[in-house]
Please model this.
Amino acid sequence: MEAPCLAGGHGSPRQRSPFCCRGGSQTLPPVTWSGGLQAATRSANLCRRTKYEKSEAAEVKIVRYRSGTRTEYGIQKGDIIQALEGSPFRGIKEAGRSVKASDVRLLAPCLPSKVLAIGASYRSHCLEVGQPILDEPMMFFKPSTSVVGPEDKLIRPAGVKRFDYEAEVGVVIKRRAFQVSKDKALDYVLGYTCVNDVSVRDWQNVAANWQWGRAKGSDTFCPIGPCIETEGNPYDMGVESRLNGVRKQRGSTSDLIWDIPSMIEYLSSTMTLLPGDVIATGTPVGVSNMNPGDVIEIIVDGVGTLRNYIA
Ligand code: MG
Model:
């Protein structure tokens, strides 16, 4: 057995699943996942050769906020938030009133039924820590009860030695997705956000917590925000973390082993993704520990800064 790795999304080798393209018996219903690493890499290369056309007219920052006793969605431009009628997942329609961002409390920008997190997904990070490149994405859940929003406190459990940040690009699902091909996958994306895949390493790498539920799914372990940016290049999106103002991680989704459409194809091949569900796409090299009193910031280019405080 390999020595466990302290970095995010890593552990011992897993058994091959029925989806693996290199053997194993397929015992589940038909799936549309079109292959493992090699197919995904080919797909990613093809995608990267496709020119991404940025549409500034389509750039919209969707926020969710509490104003007095009211919780609603809005579109933020600078310090002004235009309130929306209902949910942006049913279409973006302004309600005709606005609030100042400085007068409200921003919340996590969506309420996911589940956060689907991918580990060991950045090529350079795997190389640096000696993690083998896997045949298919390594996926785990973070429960809805772990989600918090911008400026919220993250609870560091007493007695743990490693309470780590992981800066990740979050993909917010727009509409129900089941068995979606990677060619159509981006039609199911509302936009992108910042996610911190907070992880207690002490708990992650012990057999009793093999599925990482406690290590990565405890309360406050999934900050999301500050907004959902509806425009962005999924094939080359910068992501970084800053701890107390010092940059600790800097990467780009161009380094992902499986690009974002391939992740959606893989996840939706057997699992229904619902509006508001979030895919945490993995973290680049440089994860480390947070202590009480620290300020952690996750930045995704074009989205903004997700800031949280360690309690
Ligand atoms: Mg992670």
Observations:
- Residues 61-107 form a domain with the SH3 type barrels. fold (CATH 2.30.30.370).
- The helical segments are 37-49, 123-129, 201-204, 213-217, 260-268.
